[in-house]
Design goal:
This protein has helices at residues 2-5, 12-44, 49-97, 101-107, 109-151, 157-200, 202-207, 211-237, 239-263, 269-310, 372-378, 402-407, 423-428, 436-445, 449-453, 472-484, 502-515, 528-531, 551-557, 559-574, and strands at residues 332-339, 349-356, 361-366, 387-392, 395-396, 409-412, 421-422, 462-463, 490-494, 520-524, 536-541, 544-549. By secondary structure, the protein is of the alpha/beta class. It folds into 2 domains: 2-197 and 230-310, ABC transporter transmembrane region fold (Up-down Bundle); 332-574, Rossmann fold (3-Layer(aba) Sandwich). The strands form 3 sheets. A 6-stranded mixed beta sheet has the order 6-9-10-3-11-12, with helices on both faces. Strands 2-1-4-5 form a 4-stranded antiparallel beta sheet, covered by helices on one side. A hairpin with a 2-residue loop joins strand 4 (387-392) and strand 5 (395-396). The longest helix has 49 residues, at 49-97.
């Protein structure tokens, strides 16, 4: 947590001001009991009304000053803590944006969401408490002890017995409760993951009638978190009643022994009242410390989880000596590329070599799990190869800036992902400066213009989160339009025609052939009809290239390709 608190240095002036305000407020709180004792002993007992009025005015002035300091201290504490939360969220989000897919896979989306929201909020609350209580409590405790001893040394012996008991209680309860806070955050991650999966997979859940199973799954995660929360709260709930009991016993002891000293003429009534106030301030400062023992451990756990994200160094980063190609044609070359996912027993791709040239369409086909998507993900450098090289325009992509590399690429993912907003905004995501004419042209090429025109708002029509208000085929066509409007040198289509009917698929491929005549096009597909007219077809089987050539050449030379073709032609004939 200390590392994370270093980011507060930008607020050092505000923090110094808060400390000053808290110090002045504490002085006011410590001075008031002394004034009260003077009124009782020198005003009430002697019947001096003028003295009572004068000291009363001074008490009122001190009280107003303390209130003003408290209000401003609270205001600036909230401002500093909320600013810290804002800056930390921005820092975490910016850092996560630089992660490769490998880092995302390592932590998990659900956990990243929890850390960016709940964990940062926990730390933000702790900072707010620290700026108020962590500064105020020691001042009140030390000042109260000094004032109490100064008021009556003999009566202060009561505090010598009480304070160690209170400290021992706080230590015992905190030691028992702290281990549960880490467990709570982990279980909150699990609950968040379950909820996220259920919300995103609601169609699958309902189609397979698995509502009861998912409800039980949610209840299991929810009850697990609840049980842990109840355990820690039961432990912490023991703290306050225990402290109040000790405090009340202490007050009774102070009144008992104080009355004896008053009876012996060793102490005045006002002094006893002031001593009781100082004792309460000392013990209340310990209560504040106990609050800190409750909230700081949980904040420390959250801070550690945030630091864990911030300390992850992205595996994929720009080379210090970045090279830039002299040509910008979009030639893609794989040379003896082997790639393994972290922890995998065997490579997903093994010794892959081929060249994709501008003006040509390179198609990649193969069975499920053959490595098609993995191969295409290596080109934008979502992952780094285990061995071998991937070249774009003659330069290894690891020696190019990621921004420069990806500026050449237009990518259509396997899962068509659209954002909430208008259709225009989603297409312009591929090119911010795209004109209305470019957007409409891209939509026409992607065979999306017709269904967009049927919407009431046309291109201004709003898409819901996840674009759930349009069909799968419409999502794919908008994703393709988003890539087309980019006017890139390299186009990557990762099985992005699967939701299209054969007629739309054929029209789209014909339009793409004309539009992308000077670009390098790489298509991953399951359908033979999508790839059979490609200039080069690469057949993958278990991560290995088992065939390469045109449709006609592969029909003569590649058994795996013939099997794929025969199985799909049979299905088409039956249809």
């Amino acid at each position: 947590m200390i590392k994370l608190l270093k980011t507060l240095k930008v607020y050092k002036l505000q923090i110094v001001f808060i400390i000053l305000l808290v110090f002045l407020q504490s002085l006011a709180d410590l001075y008031l009991p002394r004034l009260m004792a003077n009124i009782i002993d020198n005003g009430v007992v002697k019947g001096d009304i003028n003295y009572i009025i004068d000291i009363g005015k001074l008490m009122l002035l001190v009280t107003v000053g303390g209130v003003i300091c408290s209000v401003f201290a609270s205001y600036f504490s909230a401002k500093v803590s909320s600013g810290f939360g804002r800056n930390t969220r921005n820092k975490v989000f910016t850092h996560v944006e630089n992660f490769s897919l490998q880092e995302f896979d390592k932590i998990g989306t659900a956990s990243l969401i929890t850390r960016t929201t709940n964990d940062i909020t926990q730390v933000q609350n702790v900072i707010n408490m620290i700026l108020r209580m962590m500064i105020s409590a020691p001042l009140m405790a030390i000042g109260g002890i000094i004032m109490a001893v100064n008021q009556d040394k003999e009566l202060s012996l009561v505090l010598v017995f009480v304070l160690p008991i209170l400290a021992a209680l706080i230590f015992f309860v905190s030691r028992k409760g702290i281990p549960y806070f880490n467990a709570m955050q982990v279980k909150l991650d699990k609950l968040n993951q379950v909820v996220r999966e259920q919300l995103t997979g609601i169609r699958v859940i309902r189609s397979f009638n698995r509502d009861d199973y998912e409800i039980n799954r949610f209840n299991t995660a929810n009850l697990d978190l609840t049980d842990t929360a109840l355990k820690v709260n039961r432990i912490m709930a023991f703290l306050m009643p225990g402290m109040m009991l000790i405090m009340n016993i202490a007050i009774v002891a102070i009144v008992w022994f104080g009355s004896i000293r008053i009876d012996n003429m060793s102490m005045q009534v006002g002094d006893l009242m002031a001593f009781i106030q100082y004792a309460m301030q000392i013990m209340m400062s310990l209560v504040m410390v106990s609050f800190m023992f409750v909230i700081v451990p949980r904040g420390a756990v959250s801070a550690a989880r945030i630091n864990e994200v911030l300390e992850i160094k992205p595996i994929i980063k720009d080379n210090e000596l970045n090279k830039e190609s002299t040509n910008d044609n979009g030639v893609v070359e794989f040379k003896n590329v082997t790639f393994s996912y972290p922890g995998a027993e065997k490579p997903a791709l093994n010794n892959i070599s081929f060249v994709a040239k501008p003006g040509e369409t390179t198609a990649i086909i193969g069975g499920t799990g053959s490595g098609k998507t993995t191969l295409i993900n290596l080109i934008p450098r979502f992952y780094d190869v285990s061995s071998g090289n991937v070249f774009v325009d003659g330069i290894d992509i690891r020696e190019q800036k990621q921004d420069t590399l990806r500026q050449k690429i237009a990518y259509v993912p396997q899962k068509a992902l659209l954002f909430s907003g208008s259709i225009t905004e989603n297409i312009k995501y591929g090119k911010e400066t795209a004109t209305d004419e470019e957007i409409q042209q891209a939509a026409k090429i992607a065979q999306a213009y017709e269904f967009i025109s049927e919407f009431d708002g046309n291109f201004s029509s709003k898409l819901s989160q996840g674009a759930t208000n349009i069909s799968g085929g419409q999502k794919q066509r908008l994703s393709i339009a988003r890539a087309i409007v980019r006017h890139a040198k390299i186009y990557l289509f990762d099985d992005s025609f699967s939701a299209l009917d054969y007629k739309t698929d054929g029209n789209l491929r014909s339009a793409l052939k004309l539009e992308l005549a000077n670009s390098t096009v790489i298509i991953v597909a399951q359908r033979v009809s999508t790839v059979m007219n490609a200039d080069q077809i690469i057949v993958l089987d278990n991560g290995v290239i088992v065939g390469s050539g045109t449709h006609k050449e592969l029909m003569d030379t590649c058994e795996v390709y013939r099997e794929i073709v025969s199985s799909q032609l049979l299905k088409e004939e039956l249809a």
